[in-house]
Amino acid sequence: MDVERIQKVNNLALDLMRQGLAADREEAVAKAETIFRNRDVDDYAQIRQRMEEVPTIDNPHPAGMNNLSQDQIKDILEKNTAFVIKKFKEFQDKIESLEKDITNLKNRPYATGPARDINTGELKTQSQPAQSQVTQGAAQKQDGSHPRSGNYVDSDVSIEKFFYMGHK
Question: So where are the chain's domains?
Fold first, then answer.
């Protein structure tokens, strides 16, 4: 028995028990199985009758295939192969360009770092002014008083901002 058939038998057995047609579970399952066997035999007989009624087809080729000549079929196949080859080449080109982009990205962090002169080992002058501007901006930010840095008095911040108790 397959799973679907077992589920159908169980569902039918439960229905038989609910309606009072079976005294216990075993009797309900037995009745459900006999009902399904009778249905299966009837279904099998109907299928067999339909198979006998269907006339056999003498021509094994579909009607649409006879309308196309061999030359037309060759043309269609050539167009399809040309299209497939074109798409494969496009995909290859895209993959190659993506591989180039990946190698460029892998090499980029080395190029964006501070450039050092190979002979002297010193940083080039272009990167030094940029670093001095960054340190000056950081120094200006540290001069101002900020509540999170700890430079504040209790009277500057009210307790209601920390402990909200709803409407007053």
Answer: 3-53, 65-106
d(CA 52, CA 56): 9
Q: How far, in Å, CA of 87 to CA of 44, rounded?
A: 50
Q: Which residues pair with 116 in a beta bridge?
A: 123
Taking each helix axis as running N to C, give the angle between helix 3-19 and helix 25-53, from 0 to 180 degrees, rounded to the nearest 10.
130
What pLDDT shows up at residue 129? 52
Count of Cβ atoms closer than 10 Å to residue 159 Cβ: 7
Instruction: Please state, rounded to an integer, the average pLDDT across all residues of the chain.
Output: 76
Entry pTM: 0.28
Q: What is the sign of the dihedral through the CA atoms of 59, 62, 64 and 68?
A: negative
Q: What are phi and psi of 153, to 5 degrees?
A: -105, 155
User: Which residues fall within 8 angstroms of residue 84, CB to CB, at 6 or more apart?
Assistant: none
The H or E element spanning position 112 is helix 70-112
pLDDT at residue 60 greater than cutoff 60: no
Rounded to whole angstroms, how far apart are CA atoms 20 and 16? Answer: 6
Structure token digits, residue 154:
């209790």
Gap between the Cα atoms of 63 and 68, Å rounded: 10
